[in-house]
Amino acid sequence: MVMDVKKNFHQTHSKVAVITGANAGIGFTLAERLLKANHKIRLCLACRNYDKGQAAAKALKESSPDVDIWVVLLDTSSVESVYAASKAIKERYDHIDYLYLNAGMMKVTGVDWHYFWKGLFSSRVFFMFTTGEGLLKQEDNVTNDGLQNVFQTNVFGHYVLIKELEDVLGNLSGKPDGTSQLIWTSSSASLEHKFDIEDFQHKKGNDPYSSSKFAMDVISVGLNSRMNKFNIFSHAVCPGLVMTNLTYGILPQWFWTLSLPLLWLLRFFVPSMTSTTDNGSEALLWLSQQNPSALDPQSKFLSEVSVLNKPFVATKQMNIDPDKAERLMQELDRLDLSLRARYKK
Ligand SMILES: NC(=O)C1=CN([C@@H]2O[C@H](COP(=O)(O)OP(=O)(O)OC[C@H]3O[C@@H](n4cnc5c(N)ncnc54)[C@H](OP(=O)(O)O)[C@@H]3O)[C@@H](O)[C@H]2O)C=CC1
Ligand SMILES: CC(C)CCC[C@@H](C)[C@H]1CC[C@H]2C3=C(CC[C@]12C)[C@@]1(C)CCC(=O)C[C@@H]1CC3
């Protein structure tokens, strides 16, 4: 009997990918590339703006008219939106193969050019271009749920989404050989010293973005400890520096366009200068083609690019303490419970 179910699953199952923040930038290009690699894949574009989501679906259907693309409204900065989106997703799919936790934001109010020029002629130049550390003046605000916006948008909204979708992930979906990959769009700006578990929302610091990206890496490791036994695997990716609405929020598009030759030159020393969403999405696509159980749960996968503009995937060891990861997840579980008590009475 079990054999029959397994056989049936292989024969009838088209892969399902859910991508948050899929209407633009890296998420949108990833959707295009997943479709190119497997035209039978079923795509769910989880977007906070329904019109933008529909426009993205329309653009994707232009090159592949027969594909199964569906838009769901999801704002990761609101737990009620996450609950509603998860319910709709579970009504449509009985198993998710790839859950891309990609939506993200940072609010930059200025660039510290003084620090930039000083850094340019110092030994920290490579680190500065890779991580952007110390260069960006950021701000954050509080969401309607009472949480720090960058933390909730980038991290917590996705954590709640995973919890809500648990019963369509891995073998918890009832498919004996069902496997799921959780793929986080992290960043080279993920810096351990910017994260404090006592202040995991980063209420007090001045680099909420780096803190949120490090929290992601920690959670990814923690999820592997908790969920690998259910065939659920989690990995974090760094797309490099990519020209998208996020970078156009830091400096105007014309500036980046003028800087492109410089960014290309920098590739001799800094392979994370991926620049295009095609290059930046390389590791995200690559992960979907791997056997996740063979990947090291402590590895981070980096989209990088050669001087000849050829993208490739590099790996980096994270060395995150699993106990620390479990502690952070327990904090998030507590927060999750308190919000559920508020909204799901
Ligand atoms: N660009 C870069 O250099 C790098 C980017 N990253 C990460 O890549 C990911 C994608 O960003 P990128 O493509 O660059 O930037 P974009 O701004 O182009 O894309 C971000 C996506 O996230 C969505 N989004 C933002 N806030 C929310 C929210 N509250 N709920 C749901 N969706 C939301 C945006 O929706 P909308 O269009 O409605 O704003 C958009 O679809 C982010 O996590 C970012 O941190 C990591 C390293 C480098
Ligand atoms: C002449 C220009 C190339 C100078 C640009 C200086 C800085 C604005 C940038 C240098 C490194 C960049 C960087 C990011 C933003 C812009 C820089 C600070 C990110 C923080 C963007 C978001 C990420 O996730 C990681 C990026 C690391 C590098």
UniProtKB/TrEMBL annotation:
* Topology relative to the membrane: Single-pass membrane protein
Which Gene3D superfamilies is this protein grouped with? NAD(P)-binding Rossmann-like Domain (3.40.50.720)
Q: Which domain of life is it from?
A: Eukaryota
- Protein's GO biological process: cholesterol biosynthetic process; estrogen biosynthetic process
- Molecular function GO labels: 3-beta-hydroxysteroid 3-dehydrogenase (NADP+) activity; 5-alpha-androstane-3-beta,17-beta-diol dehydrogenase (NADP+) activity; estradiol 17-beta-dehydrogenase [NAD(P)+] activity
- Main localization category: endoplasmic reticulum
EC numbers, comma separated? 1.1.1.210, 1.1.1.270
Q: Any idea where this protein resides? A: Endoplasmic reticulum membrane
The UniProt keywords, alphabetically, are: Endoplasmic reticulum, Glycoprotein, Lipid biosynthesis, Lipid metabolism, Membrane, NAD, NADP, Oxidoreductase, Steroid biosynthesis, Transmembrane, Transmembrane helix
Q: Which PANTHER family match?
A: 3-KETO-STEROID REDUCTASE, 3-KETO-STEROID REDUCTASE_17-BETA-HYDROXYSTEROID DEHYDROGENASE 7
**Family recorded in the similarity comment:** Belongs to the short-chain dehydrogenases/reductases (SDR) family. ERG27 subfamily.
| Oligomeric form and interacting partners | Binds to the short form of prolactin receptor.
According to UniProt, the name of this protein is: 3-keto-steroid reductase/17-beta-hydroxysteroid dehydrogenase 7
Organism equals Lymnaea stagnalis
